[in-house]
Fold:
Amino acid sequence: MRIAEVGNIIEFKEGLQGIVEKVNENSVIVDLTYMQNFRNLELDARTVVNHKNYKIIKESVS
Structure:
């Protein structure tokens, strides 16, 4: 299992995507406003995702 880094784009929970803002010991904090349909989904702007529950879609460029 690869752990995401700040700036990576991850996918989780049936297709939701977001940008990793902070990496914690067991989870990441993700900014969901990255998704084009964010406003239609009526979700909070940020969420916490356990490392076991996501896959990295795109690496950060840093």
The mean pLDDT is 95.
